[in-house]
Amino acid sequence: GVTRMTTIGHHHGAENGEMIRCCIECDAHFAITPGEQAFYMNRALALPLRCATCRRERRERQQQVQEGPSR
């Protein structure tokens, strides 16, 4: 298993069930709370690969694409 998660300083929130992930876009470490884990599992969704900031920016970009070019 990957044990390097404990080297992230104050982010080692494993004791309360949080998962620590590394964002695939900005490399920031972010926590997925047990509530969020349950939310994704209940909907048969994969756990997020991006931090909340990158997810929000990506969602906004996708909405702009769906609305069509603003030129």
Output the keywords.
71 residues; alpha+beta; two-stranded antiparallel sheet; 2 helices; disordered N terminus
Topology of helices and strands:
Blueprint: E1 19-22, E2 29-32, H1 34-42, H2 52-67
Antiparallel strand pairs: 1-2
Would you summarize the structure shown here?
With 71 residues, this protein is of the alpha+beta class. It contains 2 helices and 2 strands; from the N terminus they run E-E-H-H. 35% of the residues lie in helices and 11% in strands.
Describe this structure in words.
It is a single chain. This protein is of the alpha+beta class. Helix content is 35%, strand content 11%. It contains two helices and two strands. It has helices spanning 34-42, 52-67, and strands at 19-22, 29-32. The longest helix is centred in the C-terminal third of the chain and has 16 residues, at 52-67. It starts with 18 loop residues before the first strand and ends with a helix. Residues 1-13 have low confidence and may be disordered.
Radius of gyration, Cα only, in angstroms? 15 Å
Distance between the termini: 49 Å
Total count of strands: 2
Residue runs with pLDDT of under 50 for 5 or more positions = 1-13
